Amino acid sequence: MVRIEYLQVNYGRRANALSIDRLEIDKGERVAVIGPSGSGKSTLLRSIKGYIRPVHGKLEVMGIDLISASAAVRRRVNRRVGFVFQQFHLAPRLTVLQNVLCGRLGITNRWRSLFGLFSEKDCRLAWEAICEVGLREQLHQRADTLSGGEKQRVAVARAVAQEPSMILADEPVSSLDPAWAEDVLELITEIQTHHQTTLIMSLHQPHLARRFASRVIGLQSGRVVFDEPASSVTDAHLEELYRGNEIIRLNPSPASAGAA
Amino acid sequence: MVVWAWRGSGIDIAALAKSGPQISSFLDRMLPPDLTWNQTEARPFDPPLRLAGTAVAITLQISLMGTVLGTVFALLLGFAASENLTPHWVHHSVKIGLAVIRSVPVIVLALLFVGALGLGAFPGVLAIAIHSIGMLGKLFAEECECVDPGIWEAMDSAGANWPQKVRYAIWPQVAPQIYSLTLFRFDMNIRDSAVLGLVGVAGLGLWIENYRRAFDYASVATMVGVTMLVVLAIEQTSIQIRRYLK
């Protein structure tokens, strides 16, 4: 699904925000990317999504090299990749249904969509996605009146309505309180299983990464520090990863859970 | 700067103080306003109250059409003039174009169109529409530049094209302000279209000018009064609507 070789990405004024020799993610994998702030988690996801163009190297998504591909081909790949943002990015003043239908914009008839007209298939997929995230009751509620957790559910439904082969989630739970965070992660992983998509998410909390992902990649200063199955990630791994940052334990005691 | 302005503008308080009699005689001729309905003596025009209805209607029609036409084009140009929505050369040149349009006073536009198309309502509509494009286009673009760019990115992620992104990422964020700005512009256009009567555009202003030329100051006063009432009424309505839109 994703193949990276000697990839180098600059982001903003930061050279080498990402520098990865080799990374392969297979179809259907459930990957968590963790690391301290500024370690390149978002840069990795944004490069895969095509928001950032790498300087050099090879970045293959769904068998297509994004660096050499034409804009039209990149758009086609892009359309099959759902993205969930930390800040939800829902359109205000539009309802839950309208927001989820926005996931269909790249596929539906472009001109009709400008007048709010969507095909039966679009509506069916949107409805199914909304049911799946459990917001059937709020179908016609305005998105800006929802709580944070509900907003992220709408954003997930929007990505699902896109019929993605891969879902990227960039710190999907960082602006949610712990209870909602687990709830949303459960939802995302359920959806990943149900739709058999590939899932790559960046997370700030190692214990959540180990619990919800099957593979954990540790990034530090744009480099891969470890890449292990979730079950074999140890405290030593994390201490190395967060060295110089606050120490985050794998199984936080209740006292430190809030800080994590 | 202020001194410079003071000297140039010929402010003469003594003259103002001595002008009391002139002002009072002017007001004397205007007051009381002519509120007669029936034609009592030979006059060049009908009594003002008889004409007021059609005059108000034409003024409203001109400003409404001008505002509608202006808003449609201002929307298109406003999106094109937003730094966050178009490449540099597009928004830069559209911005310059809008500034040029804005720099022409509405009365000069009206003079131009009256010269080209003759007296009537249509030149007024064109003048108001073009002036509105210049003003609203800039304001709309400023609104669009203040939106949250994340939503644009999210629509991009779904594969939306430019018009779709404008429709679903920008429009929901700016719609309330755009309604409000448009109503405000409509308000101002009513005042503008009344003034355009001076250069021959139909409506309230034209009748004020006609009566003035006939030295019928009592009728001028009536028409001015009617204009003030209309402007106040529209202003109040638009405040109410804008409050509702928020």
Helix and strand arrangement:
The complex is a heterodimer of chains A (260) and B (246).
Chain A: E1 2-11, E2 14-25, E3 30-34, H1 41-49, E4 56-61, E5 64-65, H2 71-79, E6 81-84, H3 96-101, H4 110-114, H5 120-132, H6 148-161, E7 166-170, H7 178-195, E8 198-202, H8 206-212, E9 215-220, E10 223-229, H9 235-241, H10 254-257
Parallel strand pairs in A: 3-8, 3-9, 6-7, 7-8
Antiparallel strand pairs in A: 1-2, 1-4, 4-5, 9-10
Chain B: H1 2-8, H2 13-18, H3 20-30, H4 48-80, H5 88-103, H6 106-117, H7 122-145, H8 149-157, H9 162-195, H10 204-213, H11 217-245
Helix pairs in contact in B: 4-5, 4-7, 4-9, 4-11, 5-7, 6-7, 7-9, 8-9, 9-11, 10-11
Strand order of the largest sheet of chain A: 6-7-8-3-9-10
Major β-sheet of chain A, in short? 6 strands, mixed
The CATH architecture name of chain B reads: Orthogonal Bundle
Strand content of chain B: under 5%
User: What proportion of the residues of chain A form beta strands (DSSP E)?
Assistant: 15-25%
Calculate the terminal CA-CA distance of chain A, rounded to whole Å: 31 Å
| Low-pLDDT windows of residues of chain B | none
Give the N-to-C terminal Cα separation of chain B.
Answer: 41 Å
Give a count of the beta strands of chain A, DSSP E runs of length 2 or more.
Answer: 10
SSE order of chain B = HHHHHHHHHHH
Number of helices of chain B: 11
| Overall mean confidence score, pLDDT of chain B | 87
- Overall helicity of chain B: over 70%
Secondary structure: number of strands of chain B: 0
